[in-house]
Structures are given as C-alpha cells and as structure tokens.
Amino acid sequence: MTATLNEPLAGKPAATPRGRVVMLVDNGVDGDSRVQKAARSAAAAGWHVTLLGVTSPGDHRPPWLLGDAEVQLVRTRRPLFTHHSKLRWSPRRPLAYSSGALAANRRQTVAARAGDVRFRYARLAAARRAGGGRAAALAGRLWLAPLRIGIKAQSLWVNLRSGELKRLTAARENPRSLLNRMTIGWWRLLRGTGSWRSLDPSLWDFEIAMGPVIDRLRPDIIHAHDYRMLGVAARAKVRAAAAGRKVKLVWDAHEYVPGLAPFPGWPAWLPAQIGYEREYAPHADAVVTVSPALADLLGAEHRLKKTPAVVMNCPTSRHTRPARTVREDCGLAPGVPLIVYAGGLSVARNTILLVEALTDLPGVHLALVSVPPSGRRAAADEHLKRATDLGVLDRVHVLPYVPHDQVVAYLSDADAAVSPLLHLPNHEIALSNKFFEYAHARLPIVVSDVRTMANTVRGAGLGEVYPAGDRDGYLRAMRAVLADPARYRAAYARPVLLADWTWEHQAAVLDEIYTSLRPVGVIAPRSRPAAKVGGRR
Fold first, then answer.
1. pLDDT tens figures, 173-216
2. Please, what is the angle between helix 269-280 and helix 178-191, to 10°?
3. All residues at 6 or more sequence positions from 486 whose CB lies less than 8 Å from its CB, including other chains
4. Are residues 69 and 100 in the same domain?
5. pTM confidence score
6. Which residue range forms the structural domain that includes residue 392?
7. Given the DSSP bridges, would you call strands 48-55 and 64-66 parallel, antiparallel or unpaired?
8. Which of 66, 109, 316, 534 is the most exposed place for a label (fewest CB within 10 A)?
C-alpha cells in the first residue's frame, strides 16, 4: 500500500558498482513496495541497478531515482491481450458476429435507418396537415413501404446475429464447456508448456516492449519480479549467451501461479500462465520468494534442486514520520476507536465485510488506505456506496497510499488493524506487506483464518483470528481487540519478535544471492538512461 518517492536523476554520484542488475516488473513501480525496496537496497549495497517497469504508450514519464537505483518505465502496447478467438468467426455459432464492436455497429446502423424512415413518414404527415394533397401523401407512403419492410427484416437479422454472439460469448467464457476443455487440452497436448503461445499470446506484449531495452542495458544479473517477467528475463539471458555474455537470472516469485483466481471470461488464461511459468522456471539461476510455505510449493512444482530463499515483504526499520497520521487524516480525536485496513479492495479480500460490520460496531471508525497512485477509485466508491446504503458513511474514511517508508508511522495511531482474506490458495501461504506493516506499527491485528497469517498471529499473540467470511466471528474478534488493545500490543515488547521482520534483514539475503551469482569483477561506471524509453513500435 505504498506510493513512490521520486527523485530526479541529476546530482547523484556514480559509485563503482559490483555488477549491473536489471530488475523487471510488470507494473508502473508506484505502489509496489517490495520492488521499490529491492531496487533501493541493492543499489545501496553497491550494485548498479536499473528497474524497468511498464506503462501505457501515451505515458511519457521520464526516468527517476529510488535512492541510487534508476527507474525507467517502458511504454508497452497490449494488442494481444484481446485473445484471437474473440476476433474471428467461430463454427460454434456460425451466425454470430465476429466481435461485439461489429454487432454494436450493425445495431446502430439499423437504428439510424429506421430513424430516417420514421422521419420521412413524419414529413409526409406534416405536409398533409399543411394542406397537401391526399394522393401525394399516399404515393409517398407506398414508396416508403418497401424501405420500412426492409428495415424490419434487417432488424430481425441483426438481432438474431447479436443474440448468437451473446450465446457464443457465454459458451466461450464457460470453463466447463466441452469445447473449451477440449481446446485447452489439445493445445497443452500439442505444445506442452509452450501452449501459452496459443492460449494467451498477450504474454508476448511484454517481451516485444522490454526485450530490446534489456539488451541495451547489458546486465550481469536480471532480477525478474513475478512470473510474467520470468519469460522476458529468460529470453534475454539466452540472447546474451548467444552474444557471448554470461547473464544470471534471479526469479522473485511473488505468488503461487496455480493458485491464482481464473481470469473472468477467459478459461484458457490460467492454464496459459501455468505453462508459461513452467517453461521458463528452469532458466533461473536462483529463486527467491515471499514465504516458507510458498518456497516449499515452488520447490515441488518445478522440481527445484534447491529450495527457494525466503525474502519476506517486511518494512524498513527506518520509518519516516509522515506529515499527518491516519487518525489525523480521518479528523478523529484520540480515544475515538479506529480500525485500519491498508491495501487493495476486492471481493477476494472480502473488504466489504469491514464496512458492513460497522452497523454492529457503534462509534467505531474504519480507515481504508486504499487509493493507489493511479487514482483509480472504482472499488473505493463501491465501498462508499455500501456505507451510504447502511448509514455509516460518516465512519468510513477512504485514503490514498503513502510512501512505503512512511506506512508504519502513518498507521501507528490507529487502535486495530485487519486482514479479512478469503480462503484462496495464495492467501493461505501469504505473509503480506500489510501484515508486517501492522506489526511494526504495533497494532493489534484481526485476521481471517487463512493458514500462514492466522498461525503467526496466534503463535505470537498479536491479535485475534476468525473464520474467513464469518461476520459474527469477525465482530467477536474485533470487539475483543478493541476492548483490550494493550494486551495485544504487549506482544511487541519482545525485541526478538520484530528483529527479523525488517527489510534490512531480508535485503541481506538478496545481496548474498547476487554475490553468489557474481562473486568477482566490476563493470564500467554507470551511464544515465535516456529520457525516452520504449519498446518496438
């Protein structure tokens, strides 16, 4: 739940680097605290770091610095994201239009023609009322009759084909349909892990944009954040080898891909992502991930020779004091009960429960630190609408993300924190950014009973656990925490508890991995990136 502290490129000294690291991420860097901290800490340890993110073709944001790490956004087009099956005629419903855009065009064309015929009839009627002859009006109506019949016929035809497109779309989006299962199975049988090339060719969009930029930077180490960048990094590594250069690949697995939620309306999407990851995982020279549970899963999934190292999403130990705290931004006096949730709002995270439960928590306020740097507010507005419907809008406060080094201090004057995740494979193994930020803010924590987080909270006595999705269970847990917050805050008095939960401790693990991959040698002093960055046009 972070924003980015941007610094201009000018005026930073260029130290002699230990090696050139190019980090890759499939977002705009803003809001991704793990990526920001990894880039900043690696640069502070003496590595020359260039962090490449992605942005839309119309965004011309210049490069900037995170500490001593250079950040560039590569303008990335996504034309392949519209799957080719939705752009062509299908034998499944042969009368269906090939696309929604074409159907909309035809419906609008019929509406326009029908409107024109109605206008001509109205003009005849107006002329008749103005004293025109009956014979002329009758002749005009006879002349218009074939046009009217033709419009009726065309309307029926367009409605038929539009209806067939709706039925075709529903069939395409049904993961249980026989044809979908047969299609996915056919491509997996024919192409194995490479089936993603047919099932989700949009993964090429990242390669087309970022590949040339990576090659120009000539890295010694490529650090691929999450699975979409794994293939981009692996292909860059192979190209470098073909050119006579040794490049090492660090794969930073943020989540368990087989445990991802399916993409709505695209049954082939998840099988494609799984195949993509499996194809390129063997190219990694080192694997790191976010929790011990995920490390074990990855080791088994990809038959890794060595269990991935764990680099948890912990905050830095050096917390910058923000200009205002969460309580101040909510306009609340000390003593007014305040629950905080920091992070994205979604159905899978069950964040709407936090709003709905306020009806049974009189006088309690809720802060949702959930508006990302992009300013997207659709999810936040849905929560505010629900709060309005329930009459609790005055106790719900939607706030923007803050820089990652300010999060802990920003949250610290709340009374309790919450993580209401539902049972999904990735939620079961997660120890999220927000969990560690809550802990360093020394807040009592209420969490759902997703396995890893619940076990940690119970084991350390940091808060209460309730059955995921259970409103009454959540209310019992939150009331217990708000009734005696000092009891749970006391758990943080043990120094050893938070000692390992700092980014500095985690960054040391990452630095050891870099050093093992490139133990000796230096490269030429770094050069500043060009202001214009982009892939092939």
1. 777 777 778 888 888 888 889 888 888 888 989 999 999 999 99
2. 10
3. none
4. no
5. 0.79
6. 326-499
7. unpaired
8. 109
Rounded Cα distance, 93 and 48, in Å: 56
Parallel, antiparallel, or unpaired: how do β-strands 338-342 and 309-310 relate? unpaired
Domain of 472, CATH number, reads 3.40.50.2000
Same domain, 297 and 405: no
Phi, psi dihedrals of residue 360, rounded to the nearest 5°: -110, 10
Whole-number pLDDT of residue 530: 40
Q: Has residue 532 been placed in a domain?
A: no
CA distances from 474 to 280, 378, 468, 479, 492 (A): 42, 25, 8, 8, 23
Tokens representing 32 are: 């991704």
- C-alpha closest to that of 320 among 215, 446, 407: 407
Residue 333, C-beta contacts closer than 8 angstroms, at least 6 positions apart: none
Angstrom distance (rounded) from CA 509 to CA 483: 40
pLDDT digit string (tens) for 335-371? Answer: 999 999 999 999 999 999 999 999 999 999 999 999 8
DSSP β-ladder status, 396-400 and 365-371 = parallel
Asked if 183 and 190 touch (Cβ cutoff 8 Å), the reply is no
**CB contact set of 199 (below 8 Å; sequence gap of 6+):** 184, 187, 268, 269, 271, 272, 275
Can you list the residues of the chain whose pLDDT is less than 50? 3-6, 8, 10-15, 87, 522-537
Q: Tokens 């696309």: give the residue.
A: 99
In a domain, 180, yes or no: no
The answer to whether residues 398 and 451 belong to one domain is: yes
Q: Are 25 and 224 in contact (CB under 8 A)?
A: no
User: Would you say 411 and 369 are in contact if contact means Cβ atoms under 8 Å apart?
Assistant: yes
Radius of gyration of the chain (CA): 29
**By the 8 A CB rule, do 170 and 177 touch?**
no
pLDDT of residue 132: 75
Query: Each residue of 30-55: pLDDT tens digit?
Result: 878 899 999 999 999 999 999 999 99
Dihedral-angle region of residue 442 (phi above 0 means left; psi in -120 to 50 means alpha; beta otherwise):
left
Q: Are residues 271 and 387 in the same domain?
A: no
**What separation in angstroms does the CA of 433 have from each of 102, 277, 471?**
44, 24, 24
Please report the pLDDT score of residue 4 as a whole number: 47
From CA 24, how far away is CA 140, in angstroms rounded? 69
Unique residue bearing structure tokens 């419903």: 93
Position 498 scores a pLDDT of 86
**What is the number of alpha carbons within 13 Å of residue 122 lying toward its C-beta?**
6
Q: What number of residues does the chain have?
A: 537
- In angstroms, the first-to-last Cα distance of the chain is 33
Instruction: Name the helix (H) or strand (E) containing 233.
Output: helix 227-242
Let me know whether 143 and 61 are in one domain: no
- pLDDT the model gives residue 529: 43
CA distances in angstroms from 456 to 65, 247, 451, listed in the order given: 35, 38, 9
Q: Quickly tell me which residue has 């990094």 as its tokens.
A: 233
